[in-house]
Amino acid sequence: MMRVPSWLADPRARVLVLLAVLIALAPLLFPSGYYYRVGTLVFLNALTVTGLVILTGYAGQVSLGHAGFFGIGAYACAVGTSHFGLAPGLCVALGAGLAGGLALAVGRPILRLKSHYLAVATLGLGILIAMVLTNEGQWTGGPDGMSAPTLPLRAWLRAWGVPLSPAQAWYALSGLVLLAGAWMALSLRESASGRALRALHDSEVAARVIGIDVARAKGRAFAISAVYASVAGSLMALFNGFVNPAMAGFMHSIELVTMVVLGGAGSVLGGVVGATVLTVLPQTLTVFQEYEMTMLGLIMMVMMIFLRQGVVPGLVGAWTAWRGRRARP
């Protein structure tokens, strides 16, 4: 009987191995090279959603304005390279610093709120960021957006002798970044800080009683999730070569929250599944033409009726229950 490696006993390792295998094998199912682009969009959305899993799933805080941080990262790359001649890598780091700093600055007062008050406050923050990006036209291009630099992947690949197309290289790069983000989120969950976040998710009163600085823990989770969104936004700008205020808009925020809920709010793997479903389904439902959005809504509604905790927790629960029934004499 083949022995399972001891390191696979760690749930984090199993999740990362599963993600890596799926990322590596998915291209075998691609009917055309276009789906490398779809895969890249899935991974960048999943990276943003992984940050929201930390905020919502771990810490129990709701944000309806997280697309604002995504927009900060995207525009940091576009403005930094176009107006100041900064290197793209530096712009990614700058955007992450700006988003994280803003989240820390506004997080403490905003995160004192609870329930729908918190949702409205974060919604207002997202709208404010989108309005700034729209109105500062001399820097951001206004409502029409602006171009962003694309990485010279073709030249780099040719110089390095790597037999990949730019679309394949972006797929691999975004997949590696997602794996790194998932590893950090899973490691955070099992750390002392992650246990503190889960404690305040269950009960803020109990968390205070055992000595957790609730305001600091919430602010840290908010900042970390903002950095995830910013990095994803920066990579999206470099991938698309264009940015516009819709990246920071309300509808994008709603899409991100829907991905979290659809996949399973407390699960990193669930976040990836939710991002995959909500990114890929619209691509496959185009055959329904004008009924495309109707079909998407129906499918999502049915999924949430039968998998109320999200796709991954729901399927895991169903599998566990089935195995339990089989084990009974």
Structure description:
The chain is an all-alpha fold and 329 residues long. It has one domain. The chain has 15 helices and 2 strands. The protein has a two-stranded antiparallel sheet with strand order 1-2. It is globular and about 60 Å long. It starts with 10 loop residues before the first helix and ends with a helix.
Question: Could you give a quick summary of the protein structure above?
Answer:
The protein has 329 residues and is an all-alpha fold.
Number of helices: 15
Strand order of the largest sheet: 1-2
Number of domains: 1
Terminal residue distance: 26 Å
Describe the biggest sheet? Answer: 2 strands, antiparallel
Class per helix and strand makeup: mainly alpha
Shape field: globular
Rg calc: 20 Å
Helix content range of the residues, please? over 70%
Strand content: under 5%
Q: Averaging pLDDT over every residue, what do you get?
A: 88
Order of helices and strands: HHHHHHEHHHHHEHHHH
What secondary-structure arrangement, pairings included, does this model have?
Layout: H1 11-25, H2 34-58, H3 67-84, H4 88-110, H5 115-135, H6 137-140, E1 146-147, H7 153-160, H8 166-190, H9 192-202, H10 204-209, H11 214-240, E2 242-243, H12 250-263, H13 268-284, H14 292-306, H15 311-327
Antiparallel strand pairs: 1-2
